[in-house]
Design a protein that fits this description.
Alpha-Beta Plaits, globular, alpha+beta, 7-stranded parallel β-sheet, Jelly Rolls, Rossmann fold
Length: about 650
Protein backbone atom coordinates (compact mmCIF):
# COMPACT_ATOMS: atom_id res chain seq x y z
CA UNK A 1 0.00 0.00 0.00
CA UNK A 2 1.23 3.48 -0.81
CA UNK A 3 2.33 5.41 2.25
CA UNK A 4 2.64 9.05 1.15
CA UNK A 5 0.68 11.85 -0.45
CA UNK A 6 2.60 11.93 -3.71
CA UNK A 7 3.62 9.31 -6.22
CA UNK A 8 6.49 9.70 -8.65
CA UNK A 9 6.23 8.65 -12.28
CA UNK A 10 8.82 5.94 -11.71
CA UNK A 11 6.93 4.69 -8.66
CA UNK A 12 3.66 4.56 -10.60
CA UNK A 13 5.35 2.63 -13.39
CA UNK A 14 6.63 0.02 -10.95
CA UNK A 15 3.23 -0.12 -9.27
CA UNK A 16 1.43 -0.56 -12.57
CA UNK A 17 3.78 -3.40 -13.54
CA UNK A 18 2.96 -5.08 -10.23
CA UNK A 19 -0.79 -4.66 -10.84
CA UNK A 20 -0.55 -6.10 -14.32
CA UNK A 21 1.57 -9.02 -13.13
CA UNK A 22 -0.42 -10.08 -10.09
CA UNK A 23 -2.85 -13.02 -10.34
CA UNK A 24 -6.34 -12.61 -8.93
CA UNK A 25 -6.16 -16.04 -7.35
CA UNK A 26 -4.03 -14.56 -4.60
CA UNK A 27 -6.95 -12.53 -3.27
CA UNK A 28 -10.09 -14.52 -4.02
CA UNK A 29 -12.00 -16.87 -6.28
CA UNK A 30 -14.58 -14.56 -7.85
CA UNK A 31 -13.70 -13.23 -11.29
CA UNK A 32 -15.58 -10.79 -13.48
CA UNK A 33 -15.75 -10.53 -17.30
CA UNK A 34 -13.85 -7.22 -17.07
CA UNK A 35 -10.23 -7.05 -18.23
CA UNK A 36 -7.46 -4.51 -17.72
CA UNK A 37 -5.54 -4.50 -21.00
CA UNK A 38 -2.37 -2.59 -21.80
CA UNK A 39 -1.64 -2.25 -25.50
CA UNK A 40 1.54 -1.09 -27.17
CA UNK A 41 2.09 2.64 -27.67
CA UNK A 42 -0.29 4.25 -30.15
CA UNK A 43 -2.62 1.28 -30.15
CA UNK A 44 -5.94 3.03 -29.44
CA UNK A 45 -7.44 1.74 -32.67
CA UNK A 46 -6.00 -1.72 -32.04
CA UNK A 47 -7.71 -1.84 -28.65
CA UNK A 48 -11.13 -1.06 -30.12
CA UNK A 49 -10.69 -3.58 -32.91
CA UNK A 50 -9.44 -6.28 -30.55
CA UNK A 51 -12.36 -5.76 -28.16
CA UNK A 52 -14.81 -6.15 -31.04
CA UNK A 53 -13.06 -9.30 -32.29
CA UNK A 54 -13.31 -10.97 -28.89
CA UNK A 55 -16.95 -10.03 -28.26
CA UNK A 56 -16.47 -7.29 -25.70
CA UNK A 57 -18.95 -4.43 -25.59
CA UNK A 58 -16.21 -1.82 -25.82
CA UNK A 59 -12.66 -0.85 -24.92
CA UNK A 60 -12.60 2.31 -22.82
CA UNK A 61 -9.29 4.14 -22.47
CA UNK A 62 -8.43 4.75 -18.83
CA UNK A 63 -7.32 8.22 -17.68
CA UNK A 64 -4.45 6.82 -15.61
CA UNK A 65 -1.40 4.84 -16.68
CA UNK A 66 -0.08 4.39 -20.21
CA UNK A 67 -2.16 2.78 -22.98
CA UNK A 68 -4.49 1.15 -20.45
CA UNK A 69 -7.96 0.03 -21.53
CA UNK A 70 -11.00 -1.36 -19.77
CA UNK A 71 -12.38 -4.19 -21.90
CA UNK A 72 -16.03 -4.00 -20.98
CA UNK A 73 -18.38 -7.05 -21.24
CA UNK A 74 -21.70 -6.97 -23.02
CA UNK A 75 -23.42 -8.08 -19.79
CA UNK A 76 -22.00 -6.30 -16.73
CA UNK A 77 -23.88 -8.58 -14.32
CA UNK A 78 -22.01 -11.75 -15.28
CA UNK A 79 -19.62 -13.33 -12.78
CA UNK A 80 -17.78 -16.60 -12.67
CA UNK A 81 -15.83 -18.57 -10.13
CA UNK A 82 -13.00 -19.46 -12.49
CA UNK A 83 -10.74 -17.44 -14.72
CA UNK A 84 -11.72 -16.87 -18.36
CA UNK A 85 -8.61 -18.72 -19.45
CA UNK A 86 -9.55 -18.75 -23.12
CA UNK A 87 -10.00 -14.99 -23.32
CA UNK A 88 -6.96 -14.42 -21.10
CA UNK A 89 -4.75 -16.54 -23.35
CA UNK A 90 -6.06 -15.01 -26.56
CA UNK A 91 -5.37 -11.54 -25.21
CA UNK A 92 -1.92 -12.49 -23.95
CA UNK A 93 -0.89 -14.02 -27.26
CA UNK A 94 -2.13 -11.13 -29.39
CA UNK A 95 0.77 -9.06 -30.71
CA UNK A 96 -1.15 -5.84 -30.01
CA UNK A 97 -1.29 -6.56 -26.28
CA UNK A 98 1.47 -5.77 -23.82
CA UNK A 99 -0.17 -6.93 -20.54
CA UNK A 100 -3.57 -8.16 -19.40
CA UNK A 101 -5.30 -8.82 -16.05
CA UNK A 102 -8.76 -10.27 -15.54
CA UNK A 103 -10.51 -8.23 -12.83
CA UNK A 104 -11.16 -9.83 -9.47
CA UNK A 105 -14.58 -9.17 -7.94
CA UNK A 106 -14.96 -7.90 -4.41
CA UNK A 107 -17.73 -6.46 -2.26
CA UNK A 108 -18.48 -2.81 -1.53
CA UNK A 109 -21.50 -1.93 0.61
CA UNK A 110 -23.66 1.19 0.65
CA UNK A 111 -23.62 2.73 4.10
CA UNK A 112 -27.07 3.27 5.54
CA UNK A 113 -28.85 2.35 8.75
CA UNK A 114 -32.20 0.99 7.59
CA UNK A 115 -33.67 -0.56 10.74
CA UNK A 116 -35.87 2.29 11.97
CA UNK A 117 -39.33 1.69 10.46
CA UNK A 118 -37.94 2.38 7.00
CA UNK A 119 -41.05 3.58 5.18
CA UNK A 120 -40.98 5.68 2.03
CA UNK A 121 -43.47 8.50 1.52
CA UNK A 122 -44.16 11.03 -1.17
CA UNK A 123 -44.06 14.45 0.46
CA UNK A 124 -45.57 17.29 -1.54
CA UNK A 125 -44.73 20.11 0.88
CA UNK A 126 -41.23 21.55 1.37
CA UNK A 127 -39.28 19.74 4.10
CA UNK A 128 -37.03 22.58 5.17
CA UNK A 129 -38.50 22.71 8.69
CA UNK A 130 -37.67 19.01 9.02
CA UNK A 131 -34.01 19.58 8.18
CA UNK A 132 -32.95 20.06 11.79
CA UNK A 133 -29.29 19.42 10.92
CA UNK A 134 -29.29 22.65 8.86
CA UNK A 135 -31.05 24.89 11.40
CA UNK A 136 -31.90 23.20 14.70
CA UNK A 137 -34.59 24.96 16.72
CA UNK A 138 -35.32 21.88 18.82
CA UNK A 139 -37.60 20.14 16.34
CA UNK A 140 -38.02 16.35 16.54
CA UNK A 141 -37.07 16.53 20.24
CA UNK A 142 -33.56 17.63 19.34
CA UNK A 143 -31.20 20.11 20.98
CA UNK A 144 -31.54 23.65 19.69
CA UNK A 145 -28.37 24.99 18.11
CA UNK A 146 -26.94 21.56 17.33
CA UNK A 147 -26.56 21.92 13.58
CA UNK A 148 -24.10 22.66 10.75
CA UNK A 149 -24.50 26.45 11.09
CA UNK A 150 -25.25 26.77 7.38
CA UNK A 151 -27.49 29.81 8.03
CA UNK A 152 -24.42 31.94 8.72
CA UNK A 153 -22.69 30.76 5.54
CA UNK A 154 -25.83 31.41 3.47
CA UNK A 155 -26.20 34.84 5.06
CA UNK A 156 -22.65 35.62 3.88
CA UNK A 157 -23.75 34.75 0.35
CA UNK A 158 -22.23 31.27 -0.03
CA UNK A 159 -24.51 28.62 -1.51
CA UNK A 160 -22.08 26.46 -3.51
CA UNK A 161 -22.14 28.40 -6.77
CA UNK A 162 -19.41 27.29 -9.15
CA UNK A 163 -18.63 24.03 -7.32
CA UNK A 164 -19.34 20.51 -8.66
CA UNK A 165 -19.80 17.55 -6.30
CA UNK A 166 -19.82 13.99 -7.63
CA UNK A 167 -21.93 11.37 -5.86
CA UNK A 168 -20.16 8.03 -6.38
CA UNK A 169 -22.99 5.61 -5.74
CA UNK A 170 -25.81 3.61 -7.38
CA UNK A 171 -26.85 6.49 -9.65
CA UNK A 172 -29.00 9.56 -9.11
CA UNK A 173 -32.48 10.45 -10.31
CA UNK A 174 -31.36 13.47 -12.33
CA UNK A 175 -34.95 14.05 -13.48
CA UNK A 176 -36.04 14.82 -9.92
CA UNK A 177 -37.47 18.37 -9.69
CA UNK A 178 -35.09 19.20 -6.84
CA UNK A 179 -32.02 17.98 -8.76
CA UNK A 180 -32.68 18.62 -12.45
CA UNK A 181 -31.62 22.28 -12.47
CA UNK A 182 -28.36 21.53 -10.64
CA UNK A 183 -27.47 18.34 -12.50
CA UNK A 184 -24.12 18.42 -14.31
CA UNK A 185 -24.69 15.94 -17.12
CA UNK A 186 -21.32 16.59 -18.74
CA UNK A 187 -19.50 15.50 -15.56
CA UNK A 188 -21.61 12.37 -15.01
CA UNK A 189 -21.06 8.77 -16.09
CA UNK A 190 -22.35 5.26 -15.51
CA UNK A 191 -19.46 2.85 -14.89
CA UNK A 192 -21.87 0.02 -14.07
CA UNK A 193 -23.38 0.13 -17.56
CA UNK A 194 -20.59 2.00 -19.39
CA UNK A 195 -22.71 4.88 -20.66
CA UNK A 196 -23.18 8.58 -19.77
CA UNK A 197 -26.59 8.15 -18.10
CA UNK A 198 -26.19 7.24 -14.39
CA UNK A 199 -29.91 6.74 -13.74
CA UNK A 200 -30.63 4.18 -10.97
CA UNK A 201 -31.66 0.70 -12.05
CA UNK A 202 -35.24 -0.06 -11.00
CA UNK A 203 -35.84 -2.53 -8.17
CA UNK A 204 -39.10 -3.29 -6.39
CA UNK A 205 -37.69 -2.34 -2.99
CA UNK A 206 -36.13 0.96 -4.14
CA UNK A 207 -32.74 -0.40 -3.13
CA UNK A 208 -31.04 1.95 -5.59
CA UNK A 209 -32.33 5.13 -3.92
CA UNK A 210 -29.07 5.59 -2.02
CA UNK A 211 -27.29 7.93 -4.43
CA UNK A 212 -30.37 10.06 -5.08
CA UNK A 213 -30.80 10.66 -1.38
CA UNK A 214 -27.15 11.63 -0.98
CA UNK A 215 -27.35 13.99 -3.98
CA UNK A 216 -30.33 15.84 -2.48
CA UNK A 217 -28.48 16.51 0.75
CA UNK A 218 -25.76 18.33 -1.17
CA UNK A 219 -27.39 20.03 -4.14
CA UNK A 220 -31.19 20.01 -3.89
CA UNK A 221 -32.33 23.34 -5.33
CA UNK A 222 -34.11 25.85 -3.12
CA UNK A 223 -37.88 26.46 -3.26
CA UNK A 224 -38.87 23.09 -4.71
CA UNK A 225 -40.82 20.06 -3.62
CA UNK A 226 -38.57 18.53 -0.93
CA UNK A 227 -35.91 20.14 1.25
CA UNK A 228 -32.86 22.14 0.35
CA UNK A 229 -29.25 21.05 -0.13
CA UNK A 230 -26.43 22.30 2.09
CA UNK A 231 -24.94 23.90 -1.04
CA UNK A 232 -28.17 24.43 -2.94
CA UNK A 233 -26.62 26.30 -5.87
CA UNK A 234 -23.83 23.79 -6.43
CA UNK A 235 -23.77 21.36 -9.34
CA UNK A 236 -24.11 17.64 -8.74
CA UNK A 237 -22.66 14.90 -10.94
CA UNK A 238 -23.75 11.29 -10.83
CA UNK A 239 -21.16 8.53 -10.99
CA UNK A 240 -22.98 5.21 -11.00
CA UNK A 241 -20.52 2.54 -9.91
CA UNK A 242 -22.04 0.44 -7.11
CA UNK A 243 -24.77 -1.42 -8.97
CA UNK A 244 -23.09 -4.62 -10.10
CA UNK A 245 -22.63 -7.96 -8.31
CA UNK A 246 -18.99 -7.26 -7.49
CA UNK A 247 -16.78 -4.20 -7.45
CA UNK A 248 -13.56 -4.17 -9.47
CA UNK A 249 -10.39 -2.15 -9.14
CA UNK A 250 -10.92 -0.63 -12.61
CA UNK A 251 -14.42 0.63 -11.80
CA UNK A 252 -13.36 2.12 -8.47
CA UNK A 253 -10.29 3.78 -9.94
CA UNK A 254 -12.23 5.09 -12.95
CA UNK A 255 -14.90 6.58 -10.69
CA UNK A 256 -12.43 8.25 -8.35
CA UNK A 257 -10.50 9.73 -11.28
CA UNK A 258 -13.51 10.77 -13.38
CA UNK A 259 -13.06 14.30 -14.77
CA UNK A 260 -10.84 15.61 -11.94
CA UNK A 261 -10.48 19.04 -13.56
CA UNK A 262 -14.26 19.53 -13.56
CA UNK A 263 -15.34 17.75 -10.39
CA UNK A 264 -14.19 19.43 -7.18
CA UNK A 265 -15.50 17.07 -4.51
CA UNK A 266 -16.16 13.31 -4.61
CA UNK A 267 -18.61 12.01 -1.98
CA UNK A 268 -18.51 8.30 -1.12
CA UNK A 269 -21.00 6.67 1.25
CA UNK A 270 -19.77 3.12 0.85
CA UNK A 271 -16.81 0.87 1.61
CA UNK A 272 -15.86 -2.65 2.68
CA UNK A 273 -18.51 -4.68 4.47
CA UNK A 274 -19.31 -3.25 7.92
CA UNK A 275 -19.55 -6.67 9.59
CA UNK A 276 -16.91 -6.21 12.27
CA UNK A 277 -14.61 -8.86 10.78
CA UNK A 278 -13.46 -7.38 7.46
CA UNK A 279 -10.11 -5.67 6.95
CA UNK A 280 -10.04 -4.22 3.45
CA UNK A 281 -9.21 -1.15 1.43
CA UNK A 282 -8.47 0.19 -2.03
CA UNK A 283 -6.54 -1.93 -4.50
CA UNK A 284 -3.52 -0.74 -6.48
CA UNK A 285 -5.26 1.09 -9.33
CA UNK A 286 -7.59 2.88 -6.93
CA UNK A 287 -4.65 3.94 -4.76
CA UNK A 288 -2.95 5.25 -7.88
CA UNK A 289 -6.10 7.13 -8.88
CA UNK A 290 -6.36 8.70 -5.42
CA UNK A 291 -2.70 9.72 -5.53
CA UNK A 292 -3.24 11.29 -8.95
CA UNK A 293 -6.36 13.02 -7.64
CA UNK A 294 -4.73 14.76 -4.69
CA UNK A 295 -1.64 15.64 -6.72
CA UNK A 296 -3.18 16.66 -10.03
CA UNK A 297 -6.92 17.20 -9.56
CA UNK A 298 -8.45 20.68 -9.64
CA UNK A 299 -5.46 22.10 -11.48
CA UNK A 300 -2.98 20.73 -8.96
CA UNK A 301 -4.90 21.88 -5.87
CA UNK A 302 -6.12 18.34 -5.34
CA UNK A 303 -9.43 16.51 -5.56
CA UNK A 304 -11.46 16.44 -2.34
CA UNK A 305 -12.49 12.92 -1.30
CA UNK A 306 -15.17 12.76 1.42
CA UNK A 307 -15.80 9.35 2.96
CA UNK A 308 -18.42 7.94 5.31
CA UNK A 309 -16.57 6.39 8.25
CA UNK A 310 -18.76 3.29 8.46
CA UNK A 311 -21.86 1.74 10.04
CA UNK A 312 -20.35 -1.20 11.93
CA UNK A 313 -21.11 0.24 15.36
CA UNK A 314 -19.11 -0.74 18.42
CA UNK A 315 -18.33 -4.11 16.82
CA UNK A 316 -16.16 -2.52 14.16
CA UNK A 317 -13.29 -0.02 13.86
CA UNK A 318 -12.99 2.34 10.89
CA UNK A 319 -9.19 2.06 10.97
CA UNK A 320 -9.81 -1.36 9.39
CA UNK A 321 -11.36 0.42 6.39
CA UNK A 322 -8.57 1.55 4.07
CA UNK A 323 -10.77 4.19 2.42
CA UNK A 324 -11.99 5.97 5.55
CA UNK A 325 -8.54 5.74 7.15
CA UNK A 326 -6.65 7.11 4.15
CA UNK A 327 -4.74 10.37 4.51
CA UNK A 328 -6.16 11.43 1.15
CA UNK A 329 -9.80 11.26 2.30
CA UNK A 330 -11.76 13.28 4.84
CA UNK A 331 -13.48 10.68 6.98
CA UNK A 332 -16.82 11.80 8.44
CA UNK A 333 -18.75 10.24 11.31
CA UNK A 334 -22.27 11.15 12.45
CA UNK A 335 -24.13 12.40 15.49
CA UNK A 336 -27.86 12.41 16.17
CA UNK A 337 -30.09 15.36 17.00
CA UNK A 338 -29.50 15.21 20.76
CA UNK A 339 -25.71 15.23 20.42
CA UNK A 340 -25.04 11.57 21.08
CA UNK A 341 -23.35 9.15 18.73
CA UNK A 342 -25.62 6.90 16.71
CA UNK A 343 -25.51 3.23 17.70
CA UNK A 344 -24.23 2.29 14.23
CA UNK A 345 -21.26 4.69 14.36
CA UNK A 346 -17.78 3.23 14.22
CA UNK A 347 -14.96 4.86 16.14
CA UNK A 348 -11.37 5.32 15.06
CA UNK A 349 -8.46 7.75 15.30
CA UNK A 350 -8.57 8.59 11.57
CA UNK A 351 -12.01 10.28 11.69
CA UNK A 352 -11.54 14.00 11.10
CA UNK A 353 -14.99 15.43 11.92
CA UNK A 354 -18.71 14.71 12.13
CA UNK A 355 -22.02 15.83 10.70
CA UNK A 356 -25.52 14.48 11.41
CA UNK A 357 -27.79 11.54 10.75
CA UNK A 358 -30.63 9.71 12.46
CA UNK A 359 -30.16 7.45 15.42
CA UNK A 360 -31.69 6.10 18.57
CA UNK A 361 -35.12 7.73 18.45
CA UNK A 362 -38.07 6.35 16.50
CA UNK A 363 -39.35 9.87 15.87
CA UNK A 364 -40.21 9.84 12.12
CA UNK A 365 -38.94 13.42 11.79
CA UNK A 366 -35.52 12.76 13.35
CA UNK A 367 -34.02 11.31 10.16
CA UNK A 368 -32.46 13.16 7.25
CA UNK A 369 -34.96 14.78 4.87
CA UNK A 370 -33.91 14.65 1.23
CA UNK A 371 -34.81 13.68 -2.33
CA UNK A 372 -35.91 10.16 -3.21
CA UNK A 373 -36.43 8.17 -6.39
CA UNK A 374 -38.99 9.06 -9.04
CA UNK A 375 -39.58 12.62 -7.86
CA UNK A 376 -40.36 11.63 -4.28
CA UNK A 377 -39.05 12.89 -0.93
CA UNK A 378 -38.07 11.03 2.23
CA UNK A 379 -37.57 11.83 5.91
CA UNK A 380 -35.66 8.62 6.54
CA UNK A 381 -32.24 8.82 4.96
CA UNK A 382 -29.77 7.60 7.55
CA UNK A 383 -26.40 6.23 8.61
CA UNK A 384 -22.98 7.69 7.95
CA UNK A 385 -24.23 7.53 4.37
CA UNK A 386 -26.16 10.68 5.19
CA UNK A 387 -23.25 12.28 7.06
CA UNK A 388 -20.69 12.32 4.23
CA UNK A 389 -22.83 14.29 1.71
CA UNK A 390 -23.59 16.92 4.33
CA UNK A 391 -19.84 17.38 4.76
CA UNK A 392 -19.38 17.57 0.99
CA UNK A 393 -21.94 20.37 0.96
CA UNK A 394 -20.11 22.32 3.67
CA UNK A 395 -16.84 21.92 1.78
CA UNK A 396 -18.55 23.23 -1.36
CA UNK A 397 -19.46 26.40 0.54
CA UNK A 398 -15.81 26.76 1.60
CA UNK A 399 -14.57 26.27 -1.98
CA UNK A 400 -16.94 28.96 -3.18
CA UNK A 401 -15.55 31.29 -0.48
CA UNK A 402 -12.00 30.46 -1.64
CA UNK A 403 -11.56 28.43 -4.85
CA UNK A 404 -7.79 28.30 -4.26
CA UNK A 405 -8.07 25.93 -1.29
CA UNK A 406 -6.02 22.74 -1.66
CA UNK A 407 -7.08 19.32 -0.42
CA UNK A 408 -4.83 19.84 2.60
CA UNK A 409 -6.19 23.32 3.24
CA UNK A 410 -9.66 21.85 3.63
CA UNK A 411 -8.39 19.30 6.14
CA UNK A 412 -6.72 22.07 8.16
CA UNK A 413 -9.89 24.18 8.02
CA UNK A 414 -11.88 21.16 9.21
CA UNK A 415 -9.58 20.69 12.21
CA UNK A 416 -9.59 24.39 13.12
CA UNK A 417 -13.28 25.23 12.69
CA UNK A 418 -15.13 22.06 13.76
CA UNK A 419 -16.85 22.45 17.11
CA UNK A 420 -17.50 20.27 20.12
CA UNK A 421 -20.86 22.03 20.34
CA UNK A 422 -23.07 19.66 22.38
CA UNK A 423 -21.69 16.36 21.10
CA UNK A 424 -21.13 13.76 23.81
CA UNK A 425 -20.68 10.05 24.33
CA UNK A 426 -20.88 7.86 27.40
CA UNK A 427 -17.62 6.01 26.62
CA UNK A 428 -15.36 8.31 24.62
CA UNK A 429 -14.64 11.63 26.29
CA UNK A 430 -13.19 14.81 24.82
CA UNK A 431 -9.44 15.40 25.14
CA UNK A 432 -6.96 18.12 24.17
CA UNK A 433 -3.85 17.19 22.21
CA UNK A 434 -0.39 18.65 22.77
CA UNK A 435 -1.18 21.95 21.05
CA UNK A 436 -4.60 22.42 22.62
CA UNK A 437 -6.84 21.08 19.85
CA UNK A 438 -9.89 19.30 21.27
CA UNK A 439 -10.77 15.91 19.80
CA UNK A 440 -12.93 12.88 20.43
CA UNK A 441 -12.32 9.29 19.37
CA UNK A 442 -15.83 9.11 17.87
CA UNK A 443 -16.46 12.63 16.60
CA UNK A 444 -12.95 13.66 15.48
CA UNK A 445 -12.52 17.40 15.96
CA UNK A 446 -16.26 17.92 16.30
CA UNK A 447 -19.21 18.87 14.12
CA UNK A 448 -18.56 20.90 10.98
CA UNK A 449 -19.40 24.60 11.31
CA UNK A 450 -20.16 26.04 7.87
CA UNK A 451 -20.23 29.66 9.04
CA UNK A 452 -16.85 29.45 10.77
CA UNK A 453 -15.31 27.54 7.88
CA UNK A 454 -16.30 30.00 5.13
CA UNK A 455 -15.19 33.00 7.19
CA UNK A 456 -11.78 31.45 7.81
CA UNK A 457 -11.59 30.28 4.17
CA UNK A 458 -12.06 33.83 2.90
CA UNK A 459 -8.68 34.96 4.26
CA UNK A 460 -6.93 31.58 4.21
CA UNK A 461 -3.34 31.26 3.03
CA UNK A 462 -2.27 27.89 1.64
CA UNK A 463 -0.42 25.77 4.17
CA UNK A 464 3.31 25.10 3.68
CA UNK A 465 4.70 22.20 1.66
CA UNK A 466 4.14 18.73 3.04
CA UNK A 467 6.97 16.34 3.94
CA UNK A 468 7.10 12.66 4.83
CA UNK A 469 9.50 11.10 7.33
CA UNK A 470 10.05 7.44 8.16
CA UNK A 471 10.63 8.09 11.83
CA UNK A 472 11.82 4.64 12.78
CA UNK A 473 11.01 0.98 12.67
CA UNK A 474 10.89 -2.03 14.99
CA UNK A 475 11.60 -5.14 12.92
CA UNK A 476 12.13 -7.69 15.69
CA UNK A 477 9.21 -9.91 16.61
CA UNK A 478 7.62 -9.39 20.02
CA UNK A 479 5.14 -11.78 21.57
CA UNK A 480 1.98 -10.38 23.10
CA UNK A 481 1.31 -11.98 26.49
CA UNK A 482 -2.04 -13.84 26.72
CA UNK A 483 -3.25 -11.47 29.44
CA UNK A 484 -1.47 -8.18 29.10
CA UNK A 485 0.31 -6.11 26.50
CA UNK A 486 3.63 -5.55 24.81
CA UNK A 487 5.09 -2.04 24.85
CA UNK A 488 7.39 -0.81 22.08
CA UNK A 489 9.12 2.55 21.72
CA UNK A 490 10.52 4.51 18.79
CA UNK A 491 12.53 7.62 19.62
CA UNK A 492 12.88 9.96 16.66
CA UNK A 493 14.21 13.35 15.63
CA UNK A 494 11.57 13.41 12.86
CA UNK A 495 14.29 13.54 10.19
CA UNK A 496 15.67 16.80 11.60
CA UNK A 497 18.60 18.07 9.56
CA UNK A 498 17.31 16.38 6.42
CA UNK A 499 15.24 17.72 3.56
CA UNK A 500 12.18 15.80 4.76
CA UNK A 501 12.18 17.07 8.36
CA UNK A 502 8.66 17.16 9.83
CA UNK A 503 8.14 19.70 12.62
CA UNK A 504 4.35 20.18 12.63
CA UNK A 505 2.25 17.04 12.27
CA UNK A 506 -0.73 16.38 10.07
CA UNK A 507 -1.23 12.63 9.71
CA UNK A 508 0.66 9.87 11.52
CA UNK A 509 0.68 6.24 10.39
CA UNK A 510 1.71 3.16 12.32
CA UNK A 511 2.37 0.58 9.60
CA UNK A 512 2.09 -2.79 11.32
CA UNK A 513 2.36 -6.49 10.73
CA UNK A 514 0.71 -8.31 13.61
CA UNK A 515 -0.98 -11.68 14.05
CA UNK A 516 -3.13 -13.24 16.75
CA UNK A 517 -5.03 -16.45 17.36
CA UNK A 518 -8.09 -14.17 17.36
CA UNK A 519 -7.52 -10.93 15.45
CA UNK A 520 -10.62 -9.28 16.90
CA UNK A 521 -9.16 -9.36 20.41
CA UNK A 522 -6.23 -7.15 19.44
CA UNK A 523 -6.09 -3.58 20.73
CA UNK A 524 -3.46 -1.00 19.74
CA UNK A 525 -2.78 2.36 21.41
CA UNK A 526 -0.05 4.85 20.51
CA UNK A 527 1.12 7.82 22.58
CA UNK A 528 2.95 10.77 21.03
CA UNK A 529 5.95 12.60 22.57
CA UNK A 530 3.54 15.36 23.62
CA UNK A 531 1.38 12.88 25.52
CA UNK A 532 -1.58 12.42 23.16
CA UNK A 533 -2.94 8.87 23.20
CA UNK A 534 -4.54 7.59 19.99
CA UNK A 535 -6.62 4.41 19.96
CA UNK A 536 -5.40 2.88 16.70
CA UNK A 537 -7.48 -0.31 17.05
CA UNK A 538 -10.36 -1.23 19.33
CA UNK A 539 -11.57 -4.74 20.07
CA UNK A 540 -13.75 -6.21 17.31
CA UNK A 541 -15.54 -9.16 18.95
CA UNK A 542 -16.83 -10.61 15.66
CA UNK A 543 -13.41 -10.89 14.02
CA UNK A 544 -12.22 -14.49 14.49
CA UNK A 545 -9.34 -14.40 11.98
CA UNK A 546 -6.35 -16.49 13.09
CA UNK A 547 -4.27 -16.53 9.89
CA UNK A 548 -4.14 -13.25 7.97
CA UNK A 549 -3.84 -10.72 10.79
CA UNK A 550 -2.65 -7.29 9.67
CA UNK A 551 0.02 -7.30 6.97
CA UNK A 552 1.82 -3.92 6.73
CA UNK A 553 -1.51 -2.27 7.53
CA UNK A 554 -1.31 1.55 7.97
CA UNK A 555 -3.22 2.47 11.12
CA UNK A 556 -3.71 6.23 10.99
CA UNK A 557 -4.35 8.97 13.53
CA UNK A 558 -5.26 12.63 13.13
CA UNK A 559 -5.33 13.28 16.88
CA UNK A 560 -1.76 14.58 17.04
CA UNK A 561 -2.46 17.33 14.49
CA UNK A 562 -0.08 20.27 14.92
CA UNK A 563 2.17 18.54 17.46
CA UNK A 564 5.97 18.37 17.48
CA UNK A 565 6.78 14.72 16.64
CA UNK A 566 10.31 14.72 18.04
CA UNK A 567 10.81 12.42 21.00
CA UNK A 568 9.56 8.99 22.05
CA UNK A 569 6.47 7.35 20.55
CA UNK A 570 5.09 4.50 22.64
CA UNK A 571 3.03 1.67 21.12
CA UNK A 572 0.98 -0.68 23.29
CA UNK A 573 -0.45 -3.85 21.74
CA UNK A 574 -2.69 -6.01 23.88
CA UNK A 575 -5.15 -8.89 23.74
CA UNK A 576 -8.52 -8.50 25.43
CA UNK A 577 -11.46 -10.86 25.27
CA UNK A 578 -13.34 -13.67 26.92
CA UNK A 579 -10.64 -16.31 26.37
CA UNK A 580 -6.82 -16.02 26.53
CA UNK A 581 -5.26 -15.57 23.10
CA UNK A 582 -1.75 -15.41 21.70
CA UNK A 583 -0.28 -12.83 19.36
CA UNK A 584 2.92 -11.47 17.91
CA UNK A 585 3.98 -8.05 16.62
CA UNK A 586 6.27 -8.66 13.66
CA UNK A 587 6.84 -5.11 12.50
CA UNK A 588 6.05 -1.49 13.39
CA UNK A 589 7.10 1.42 11.18
CA UNK A 590 6.29 4.98 12.21
CA UNK A 591 5.41 7.37 9.36
CA UNK A 592 5.16 11.13 9.99
CA UNK A 593 3.45 13.53 7.58
CA UNK A 594 3.41 17.28 8.03
CA UNK A 595 5.19 20.57 7.50
CA UNK A 596 8.49 22.18 8.48
CA UNK A 597 7.03 25.65 8.88
CA UNK A 598 4.19 26.44 11.25
CA UNK A 599 1.10 26.24 9.02
CA UNK A 600 -0.70 29.12 10.68
CA UNK A 601 2.24 31.41 11.45
CA UNK A 602 1.01 34.27 9.27
CA UNK A 603 -2.37 34.16 10.93
CA UNK A 604 -0.78 34.03 14.39
CA UNK A 605 1.42 37.02 13.59
CA UNK A 606 -1.53 38.91 12.14
CA UNK A 607 -3.64 38.22 15.23
CA UNK A 608 -0.76 39.27 17.49
CA UNK A 609 -0.20 42.49 15.60
CA UNK A 610 -3.92 43.21 15.67
CA UNK A 611 -4.05 42.67 19.42
CA UNK A 612 -0.90 44.78 19.87
CA UNK A 613 -2.39 47.60 17.81
CA UNK A 614 -5.60 47.41 19.81
CA UNK A 615 -3.63 47.44 23.05
CA UNK A 616 -1.64 50.50 21.95
CA UNK A 617 -4.86 52.19 20.84
CA UNK A 618 -6.43 51.51 24.22
CA UNK A 619 -3.27 52.74 25.95
CA UNK A 620 -3.30 55.99 23.92
CA UNK A 621 -7.00 56.40 24.56
CA UNK A 622 -6.31 55.97 28.27
CA UNK A 623 -3.56 58.58 28.18
CA UNK A 624 -5.85 60.94 26.27
CA UNK A 625 -8.67 60.40 28.73
CA UNK A 626 -6.28 61.09 31.61
CA UNK A 627 -5.04 64.32 29.96
CA UNK A 628 -8.62 65.45 29.32
CA UNK A 629 -9.54 64.74 32.94
CA UNK A 630 -6.57 66.80 34.15
CA UNK A 631 -7.48 69.68 31.83
CA UNK A 632 -11.06 69.57 33.03
CA UNK A 633 -9.97 69.62 36.67
CA UNK A 634 -7.68 72.62 35.94
CA UNK A 635 -10.51 74.54 34.30
CA UNK A 636 -12.89 73.79 37.18
CA UNK A 637 -10.31 74.93 39.76
CA UNK A 638 -9.90 78.27 37.95
CA UNK A 639 -13.60 78.86 38.12
Amino acid sequence: MLGCGSCSAAGLSVLLHAVLSVTGAVRGTVFTPHFLVQVHAGGDGDAQQLAAELGFSSARKLPFGEELFHFYPSDAHQTRRRRSLGLQQRLEKDCRVKNVVQQEGFIRKKRGYRKINDLEAKINDPLFTNQWYLINTGQANGVAGLDLNVAEAWHLGYTGTGVTIAIMDDGIDYLHPDLASNYNAAASFDYSSNDPYPYPRYTNNWFNSHGTRCAGEVSAAANNICGVGVAYNSKVAGIRMLDQPFMTDIIEASSISHMPQVIDIYSASWGPTDDGKTVDGPRELTLQAMADGVNKGRGGKGSIYVWASGDGGSYDDCNCDGYASSMWTISINSAINDGRTALYDESCSSTLASTFSNGRTRDPEAGVATTDLYGNCTLRHSGTSAAAPEAAGVFALALEANPHLTWRDLQHLTVLTSKRNQLHDEVHQWHCNGVGLEFNHLFGYGVLDAGSMVKMAEEWKTVPERYHCVAGSVQESHKIPPEGKVTLTITTDACQGKDNFVRYLEHVQAVMTVNATRRGDLTINMTSPMGTCSILLSRRPRDVDAKVGFDKWPFMTTHTWGEDPRGSWVLEVGLVGDQPQEGIVREWTLMLHGTQMAPYIDQVVQDYQSKLAMSKKQELEGELDEALDQSLESLLSRN
